[in-house]
Amino acid sequence: MLKLLVEHRGPVTLLTLNRPEAHNSVDGELAVALGEAIETFAADNAARVLVLTGAGELAFCAGANLKGIDDLGKHAYVDRAGPMGFARLAPNKPTIAAVNGYCFAGGMELACWCDFRIASENAEFGALNRRWGVPFTDGGTQRFSRIIGQGNALWAGAAHRRVSAGKPARRPSGDA
Question: What is the pTM of this model?
């Protein structure tokens, strides 16, 4: 089974993370496939927009595959594109994250890497990797804070809470 599905629909390139049994988590093989697909999209003059999504209804991407974390830092794209295969790539064309289900940790970094994010009603976002002291490794802290503001990003990282796309987050008004 292919871990990344690539479809071309006219000027749209659709990349689908295809590991629904593992919440579309990224392992070394998927990181390489993702990096290669993004570079191919960037070089294709007929391709105008990239849409990233996850297979199934449960998850967009739950981040790095923790069971194969050792392989994630050793793949061919790690120096050029970052551990999850995308962070340092800049295709200079619009990118859209079509978020369905869980969008946690590195999955949230992937969504933040995109220029636009469209979330389904069942989408849930969270910097849950911080619970275990795992940092964002693919530029997520910078991108996340630019999107939602530094204070909100710090709160999200410290609170370890899931935020549902269907319900606005209720952040305490004071910092104490």
Answer: 0.82
Write out the H or E segment, with its range, that includes residue 2: none
Please report whether residue 173 resides in a domain. Answer: no
Query: Where residue 100 sits, what CATH number does that domain have?
Result: 3.90.226.10
Q: At residue 85, does pLDDT exceed 80?
A: no
The SS3 of residue 147 is helix
Domain of residue 55: give its range.
Answer: 4-164
Report the alpha-carbon distance of residue 119 to residue 74 in Å, rounded.
32
The total domain count for the chain is: 1
From the CA atom positions of the chain, what is the Rg in Å? 16
Cα distances (angstroms) measured from residue 97 to each of 67, 111, 113? 25, 5, 9
Residue 175 lies in a domain: no
Average of per-residue pLDDT values in the chain: 80
Tens digit of pLDDT for each residue in 4-25? 999 999 999 999 999 999 999 9
